Structure formats: structure tokens, C-alpha cells
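Incident log, entry 3
Record: GNAT family N-acetyltransferase (197 residues)
Problem: checksum mismatch between cached and fresh output.
Input:
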Amino acid sequence: MAVRHLAVSAHTVRRLWPADRNAVLDYFLRLDPEARANRFMGNVSEAGVRAYAAQALTAEGVMYGAFVDGDLRGLAELRPMETGSSPYILGPRAEAAFAVERAFRRQGIGAALFARIARAARHRGVVDLHVRCLSGNGPMLRLAAKHGAALQRAGTETEGALHLARPTPFSLWYESIAEAFDFTLAVSFPSRERVTA
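Fresh output:
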């Protein structure tokens, strides 16, 4: 079946907050079966998606979304690989996960999400950023390679690692401004919600 690619003129990437919970659920439920399997590293039921979405925004780490015309069309997650992190310091190793709706791919959304996650990781104490995906997930493999991740295939999965530079005083200041701006965007232009819990 041919997938129609939409012309995306602009997208906004911002941090997601607990108030975005329904938009996150709506997003995961909209993913086609292949995209959902790629995101969750295997098949997951609607009940599993609902359970994951219910806790995703309050779990350790941070999430960022790409919005097109007020709808969440791409999502990136940054999760610590060790327990005991805080919202501000995730520890030396963290894992990133990405998904972009099929009709909105090849519009720069994945690259913008990857750059935002890498920047957030760098400013939360992460030295090594890891990505893991199914070996057949071409979009994710291309995205990781484009950003300099060293990729290693192990059976049906591929893992990539990206060593991050240490933050500078200016980059820390810039990140704090970006976070404040993200919050202002979330309050001023809340995401559309279609799903009832």
C-alpha cells in the first residue's frame, strides 16, 4: 500500500509534560503496526500501549514531541540506564527512543528530535547516549548513523552509541532558556487531545 507523504512546512519540537498524556496516548495508538513494533522493539497490544502511555511522562527521564498543526507527529524519549537519577541528572549512560508517523517522515522531524534529545542528554550528565532498534528499522538506523552513532548489529537488534561532549556554561544557560520556552509553548499552545481514557 502506498503511503502518501504530506508536505510539512514547519514543525515545533518541545518538551512534553504530564498535561500532554492524552496526546502521547493518541500518538501511540495512531502508529501503524510496523511503526509501533519498531518503537516498542516488538508487537504490543492496544492495552500495552495504553499502560505505557499512562506512565511515560512521569517515568525517569524526559520526552520531547514534534508538533505539526497542533498534533503530535513525532516523539523522542530519553531514559537513564541506571536507577536513581533525577530530572536534572540522568547519569553517565542513557537510552533514546524515537518514532515519527510514517506520513511525516523525511521532513526533518526525526533529525530535530535526535538533536534535541542529544542536547538534553548532554546537559543532564549523560556521556554515552545509546539507541537500540530492530535491525530492519531503516529510518532509525539512518538517523543514528547520520548523527555519528557507532552501530553494532546483534541478531535482530542493532545498538548505537554516541559519545557526547561536556556541556559548557553557555550551553547550560541555553538549555535552561530552551526548557523555559518549551514550558511556555506547552501552556500557551496545548496539544490537541482526542483520546478519552
